[in-house]
Write a structure and sequence with these properties.
The protein has 419 residues and is an alpha/beta fold. Helices cover 44% and strands 20% of the residues.
Amino acid sequence: MMRVERPKSSAESDPRAAREAEAAGLYVHLPFCVVRCAYCDFYSLVGQDELARAYVDAIAAEIAAFPARTGYRPRLDTVYVGGGTPSHLPQGSLSRVLEAVAGAFALAPDAEISVEANPESAAPEILEEFRRAGANRLSIGVQSFRPELLAMMGRPHGPEAPGAAIAAAREAGLENVSLDLIYGLPGQSLADWRGDLDAAIALGPDHLSAYLLETDKDTPLARRLAQEELAEPSAETIEALFEATEERLPREGFARYEVSNWSRPGRACRHNLGYWSDRPYLGFGSSSHSYYLGRRRSCDLSATRYIEAVSKGEPTRTDLDDGAASTRLSEALVTALRLADGADFDAIGARYGVDLWSRHGADLDALAARGWARIERPRVRLTVPGILWSLDALAPFVAGAEGPGGEAATRAARGAVPS
């Protein structure tokens, strides 16, 4: 019998077409801030606003040159502009960046374009520019509504500023607005946290991120905790704050879709879901990270050095690892397990050529015995107790990463998205 072969699609027969058909996310890091918060360990610059225009020009130039330089031009379905404080930059900065993106890449018609803002700099004219430039999602860093907690964190805004910011966002036509909160702060009581949740919900956001304070980083706040100038909350307090979140947000129409993230229907952050689903992403600017063509890369240049490198046509990225499958597999597992949908062990195992059920059988049995995971093949999901103690629950899957990639897997287990 004659064998009739299926004609190959253009993407199958042409590797370049396949890469251009691939959907990816794009991140831009704008590091300029009015102050540096006491808990922040992201790359940021205070008092160096004179660099902003040259830095934005360098970002735009690198984005424009990227497809020709690398031969990689995926279709973008998400763009995320973070920092730093994008809303602190001179007017016109976001337009300059997004024009470069649209000129260099094909944007999906329904692309999610997110921009971060802080309450004190979310002026109506800035947010109006964001919308005109193409932004359709705004993420506002609130962290708390308690004056004493804001002061302890070094936040430059007061408790009334978030309300004004979200009102300005709605007036500008930004219909998808997210608020960030932090719990587990020194001196934060259960009543404080419940008050913060109430205040955030009253503003009518579409998405809430509730992050547990990380105390093992080299930040002023972590140093004060280490020196016992501030008291770290007990495990019992953390558990009570977590349970209050679990109890309150579902009643208000929010569903958890990731360990630290809650949204109303259809409002989950698609860009971050891309990170957590092992999809490619491009990063531009100082401290940004990229993952494409099976390799992770980072830009470790200061803003000044980044501007110089782009102007001279020099490389701005270095490889984070050698592309080892163990590194990518470990990160893919821990990020998927943080999702409410959990990890499809069959699909991830097939992608990396590994029998995950055999490799992690004992680990899964131990998690299930502790009540930290629910196993419904092919999926594994963390339970609510597993989410609460997710760093411990995910530790066996981080252990498989090799070399520098192990650090990336550890960051992923903490829920840190690549900048």
